[in-house]
């Protein structure tokens, strides 16, 4: 199971008026603990106003560059406001080892592949890592990016992306889309059906993309996925990551008005207690002071995945696990409610 390490902040770079890039200093002894695949994320932990705060942020650097994440300040955001206004170079944060299933495995760069990505706003952060790693580590691969923002001033890493396009003119293309600015050479509006068809059927029809990566708001991801499937793109070639909790919930048919005897296996320790079925398994575990892995607590990241080895549970949301993984007993504990009188949940067996 991933663990936290205390890391010093090496640099903080202002990207836009509302976002910063945070680069961590990695001591030699910890470098192998922070090996990652492009697209993965780290969880940052600190105490703000006496309360422990954890947040997951995608790594925007390449494995060769080090460890950098970007944090966009959101309205009423506890950590994002702290990171943008108070955090300083030399400060320390508790940083969890990289994880996440939205990625390009490093082994893939040995082959020539064509990738396309649709990103909106801060959804560019994991995509940027994928783009830079592909361009530098896979010399025969190509990448097309569709990047949506309100204005060029709000587009994170736009200067770096433009520099990459100038450097890799034959292998990297950007289709910029702005919803509140009309810019020469860019599209006006939002990422929608016509945008996807323009990429797949028109301008890049001959690219024969191997994989598509989608990152941003749920509505955009749903629309792009729908249109890609209409164009007969296989499910296995579409990969996505939400940056906010899904608004779609699954109606739970089983009554959750009873109690369950639960055993939790975490970090080679066993904990047994009784919980209300209307409470999710993660919250019940945290209430028992169990250091269960977690980050977003909204079904967006994959930090809280565990395996049910006895009993049954149902999830109110699931945008991460495949049907096969659910059939194997994997659950997102922040979304899972027990439906049996007894259940055994193993965080170590994943």
UniProtKB/TrEMBL annotation:
Its cofactor is FAD. Residues 2-105 form the FAD-binding FR-type domain. Keywords: 2Fe-2S, FAD, Flavoprotein, Iron, Iron-sulfur, Metal-binding, Oxidoreductase. InterPro entries: 2Fe-2S_ferredoxin-like_sf, 2Fe-2S_ferredoxin-type, 2Fe2S_fd_BS, Beta-grasp_dom_sf, Cbr1-like_FAD-bd_dom, FAD-bd_FR_type, Flavoprot_Pyr_Nucl_cyt_Rdtase, FNR_nucleotide-bd. GO terms for molecular function: 2 iron, 2 sulfur cluster binding; flavin adenine dinucleotide binding; metal ion binding; oxidoreductase activity. Pfam families: FAD_binding_6, Fer2, NAD_binding_1. Residues 260-350 form the 2Fe-2S ferredoxin-type domain. It comes from the Bacteria. The keyword Flavoprotein applies. This is Flavodoxin reductase. It comes from Dokdonia donghaensis DSW-1.
């Amino acid at each position: 199971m991933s663990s936290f390490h205390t890391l010093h902040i090496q640099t903080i770079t202002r990207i836009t008026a509302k976002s910063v890039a945070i680069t961590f200093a990695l001591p030699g002894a910890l470098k192998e603990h922070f090996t990652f695949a492009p697209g993965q994320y780290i969880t940052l932990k600190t105490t703000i106003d006496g309360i422990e705060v954890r947040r997951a942020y995608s790594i925007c650097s390449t494995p060769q560059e080090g460890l950098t994440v970007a944090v966009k300040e959101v309205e009423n955001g506890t950590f994002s406001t702290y990171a943008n206004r108070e955090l300083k170079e030399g400060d320390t944060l508790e940083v969890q080892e990289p994880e996440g299933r939205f990625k390009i495995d490093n082994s893939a760069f040995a082959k020539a592949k064509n990738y396309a990505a649709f990103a909106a706003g801060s959804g560019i952060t994991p995509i940027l890592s994928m783009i830079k790693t592909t361009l530098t580590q896979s010399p025969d691969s190509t990448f097309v990016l569709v990047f949506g923002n309100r204005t060029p001033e709000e587009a994170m890493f736009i200067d770096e992306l433009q520099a990459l396009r100038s450097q890799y003119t034959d292998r990297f293309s950007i289709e910029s889309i702005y919803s509140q600015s009309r810019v020469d050479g860019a599209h006006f509006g939002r990422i929608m059906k016509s945008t996807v068809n323009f990429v797949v059927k028109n301008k890049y029809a001959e690219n024969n993309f191997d994989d598509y990566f989608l990152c941003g708001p749920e509505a955009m991801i749903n629309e792009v996925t729908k249109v890609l499937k209409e164009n007969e793109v296989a499910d296995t070639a579409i990969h996505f990551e939400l940056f906010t909790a899904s608004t779609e919930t699954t109606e739970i048919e089983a009554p959750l008005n009873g109690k369950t005897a639960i055993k939790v296996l975490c970090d080679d320790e066993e904990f047994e207690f009784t919980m209300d079925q209307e409470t999710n398994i993660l919250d019940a575990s945290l209430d028992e002071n169990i250091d269960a892995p977690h980050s977003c607590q909204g079904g967006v990241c994959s930090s809280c995945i565990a395996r049910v080895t006895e009993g049954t549970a149902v999830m109110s949301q699931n945008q991460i696990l495949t049907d096969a993984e659910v059939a194997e007993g994997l659950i997102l504990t922040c979304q899972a409610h027990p439906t049996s009188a007894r259940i055994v949940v193993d965080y170590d067996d994943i």
